[in-house]
Amino acid sequence: MRLLRLGVSTDTIRIVHVGDSHIRGHIFPRTTGSLLQQAFGAISYTDMGINGAFCVTFTRPERIREIAALHPDLVILSFGTNESHNRRYSSMLHYRQMDELVRMLRDGLPGVPLLMTTPPGSYESTRISRRKRTYKINPRTAVAVQTIRRFADANGLAVWDMYEAFGGPRRACLNWQEAGLMRPDHIHYLPEAYTLQGEMFSQALLKAYNDYVEY
Question: Which of 32, 93, 123, 160 has the smallest number of CB atoms closer than 10 Å to its CB?
Answer without folding.
Answer: 93
